[in-house]
Design a protein that fits this description.
alpha/beta; four-stranded parallel sheet; Uracil-DNA Glycosylase, subunit E; globular; 12% strand; 211 residues
Amino acid sequence: MVAQEGAQHYVPRERTLTALREASAECRGCDLHRDATQTVFGEGPTRARIVMVGEVPGDREDREGAPFVGPAGRLLDRALVEAGIDRDTVYVTNAVKHFRFTRDARSGRRIHKKPSRSQIVACRPWLLAELDTVRPEVVVALGATAAQSLFGPDFRVSSRRGELIEPESDAESPLALATVHPSAVLRARAGDRDSAYAGLVADLTTVASAL
């Protein structure tokens, strides 16, 4: 297996979102750039109060070059409204910036595949640079991949979901909260989907209350 180079060599010293976005387009820190259409960097206001971190771009995000523009993004937008969070105050991004997929043998359709631990680690410098630039009040991890990128590989969303996590040492660091990824709500069985969605809204309401 070829060692992952990591994104740290591509992250510029200039910490503006524009500089980071432009530099990320040239990132070759892991092997995912070979098959993905493009880097999908985060989007939102420079001084967003909330940063929401997903897993990896999906097929539509990869084609359009923007995060959370597919079905999961539309569900997240609806949940934010119900939780009382102004979408214009939110910066959205992913733990991994390139689409990882396999191809269906029959149709050739690209099917989402969870990034490996080494790919998550390789891409983490981009996420840390985004957080350092935006400086949000709250960071929300959407799903296990995002949570483990932010809090380490031993973190379990199932045991700490919906909990406001205080910074351990740096008082200027943001609060954090882990919840499910909107795509998990979409994948839930029809009879469970309403309760799964209500749980996501409840977690986001906790975020709104913390602001």
